[in-house]
Amino acid sequence: MTTIKEALDSCQEEYFLPGNSCCAGCGLELALRWAMKALGPNTALITPASCLNVVIGLWPKTAPNFPFTNMAFAAGAAAATGMSAAFKAKAYRFPGKKWEKMTTITFAGDGGTADIGIQGLSGAAERNSDQIYVCYDNEAYMNTGIQRSSSTPHGAITTTTTLGKDRYKKNLPAIMAAHEIPYVATCSISEPLDLYDKFKKAKSIEGCRYIHILAPCPPGWGYDSNESIELARLAVKTGAWILYEVENGVVTLSKRSKSVLDPAKRIPLIDYLSRQKRFAKLSEKDMIELQEEIDRNWKHIANQLSCQEKL
Description:
CATH architecture: 3-Layer(aba) Sandwich
CATH superfamily: Thiamin diphosphate (ThDP)-binding fold, Pyr/PP domains
Number of domains: 1
Low-confidence stretches: none
Largest sheet: 8 strands, mixed
CATH class: Alpha Beta
Distance between the termini: 27 Å
Strand content: 5-15%
Number of strands: 8
Order of helices and strands: HHEHEHEHHEHEHEHHEEHHH
């Protein structure tokens, strides 16, 4: 695993610059900064409608110090497919030029991934389109007023679920793994070196790669902006967010989640939920159901690991 010194020594330059209009404590900004440190300047990024479209800065200035394209809500993965094909065509025509080194990446929110963008994403995965698709998951449509998405957790209050959402969070990493693409990974902004290493690995793989990042949102979740890292860390420690990789069908638990594979080593879920106003209306029944969902997710991962050991 990369050390902080190695990561910083390898990339002193910032590619997502200060002066952007992200909210204080924004998980998106931290996720993008560390992703770009791993990917480097030869990266072309496409983002469908999301917070990322509006925080990059007002004309004539902009925060991204790399090629950046705003795209329609449903078209992120499709646009990246075309851009990746264009780079390959350029590389074929002009061998030895920078086009051969370009990485195409889609960076989308959970609304543009789990809901509005899933058709284009599924199509890109089925074609094994040569791109990295990233979902920074703040678990609602934060840019347009904190409406629920299919990635919003059970019991969470949004402007469209004022009593708490009654459905469960859609498991996008599992859906993408079912497409049998070369690489799927989950990350958290509380584990920047894990995130950095996973993006470095994704860059080295050809085909469709999918990375899902927990990116807490202070105004949407209802907590002080200086607590973003701690909340993301609590999500991992409680087992609510599992860090893992699926490489060519083989599942590997990441270090932080491997340490809580035993349920007895996880801290109580209430320690994570109680610090967010969006869970203010949780009932005891909701708490039990949330814990049962987390236990089901862990059981699924444990079964996969057990099956692999037997092969």
